[in-house]
Amino acid sequence: MDVREHFGEIDIYLFDQLLKGRIGPGMRILDAGCGRGRNLVFFLREGYDVFAVDRSAEAVEEVRKLGAGIRPRLQEERFRAEGIEKLSFANDTFDLVICSAVLHFAEDDKHFAEMVGELWRVLRPGGMLFTRLASSIGMESQVRPLGGGRHLLPDGTERYLADAALLHRLTEKLHGQFLEPLKTVQVEGLRSMTTWCLKKPHILFFDPIEEGAGEDHTGEPPREKERE
Fold first, then answer.
1. Looking at residue 202, what is its pLDDT?
2. Does residue 206 carry a pLDDT above 80?
3. Distance (Å, whole) CA 117 – CA 67
4. What mean pLDDT is reported for the chain?
5. What digits encode the pLDDT tens for the residues 14-45?
C-alpha cells in the first residue's frame, strides 16, 4: 500500500486519534477550514460520511475535485464555501468535527468565541471535537500582545493565540470532557502548536459562549439542561 496515497497529508495528530480508535467507520465528519482537503483523503477512501467547509471558494472547489476523483457520486453541496463562525449545518449533525490550523486566524476574542461555539453547536452529543491551533503555551515571553487576543510571533506573523487557561475555561463553559491533556509542540522557538481534543457531553442544549472569550473575559458558565 502506498501510505501517502491512502492517507494523503493527514495531520499526524489527527492520525493519532485514528490509531487510538476514537474515529470509526460510518461516522459523519465535518472538516471545518478544510483547505484543499489534506485531512480528508483517508476518510473519503474509506467511505466516511464527509462534509467540509472553507472560507476560500477556490479551496472548496479543489476539495470537490478531490472528492469526485475518489467517490464520484458524492454531492457537491457537501463541500461549502463559508466561514466557520456561521456554519449552515443544523445542531448536533456530526460525530467528529475537525478544525486543524484554523482557529488562530480569529480576528479577536469575539471571533474566536464565535468559531468555537459553532464547531460545538454542530457536534452531536457524544461526538469529538479535534482542533490544532497556535498558542502562547511555552512562548509567553517570546510573543508580543497586540490586543484582542492577537499576538506578534517570532516568525513575524500575527495570530490569535490561546493559552492553557483560556482553553481550560472554554472547556468548562462548554461542559466538554478532555479526551487527553493539552499537547503543545514548539517549532524552533518560532511558534507553538497545541492539540485541543474534547468530547461533547450528552446534553439537550447549551447556551452560546459569551462574547469576548480572551484573558479579560469573566462571566458565569452557560446553563445546560440534562435530558429528562
1. 86
2. no
3. 28
4. 90
5. 999 999 999 999 999 999 999 999 999 999 99
Give how far Cα 175 sits from Cα of 22, 23, 35, 58, 140, Å: 19, 21, 29, 36, 27
Specify whether the CB–CB gap between 159 and 146 falls below 8 A. Answer: no
Please state, for a pLDDT cut of 70, what percent of the chain lies above it.
Answer: 89
- Mapping DSSP onto H, E and C, the string for the chain reads CCHHHHHCCCCHHHHHHHHCCCCCCCCEEEEECCCCCCCCHHHHHCCCEEEEEECCHHHHHHHHHHHHHHCCCCCHHHEEECCCCCCCCCCCCEEEEEEECCHHHCCCHHHHHHHHHHHHHHEEEEEEEEEEEEECCCCCCCCEEEECCEEECCCCCEEECECHHHHHHHHHHHCCEECCCCEEEEECCCEEEEEEEEECCCCCEECCCCCCCCCCCCCCCCCEECCC
Q: Are strands 183-187 and 191-199 parallel, antiparallel or unpaired?
A: antiparallel
C-alpha span between 33 and 102 (Å, rounded): 6
Angle at 129 between CA 180 and CA 106, to 5 degrees: 110
Mean per-residue pLDDT for 148-177?
97
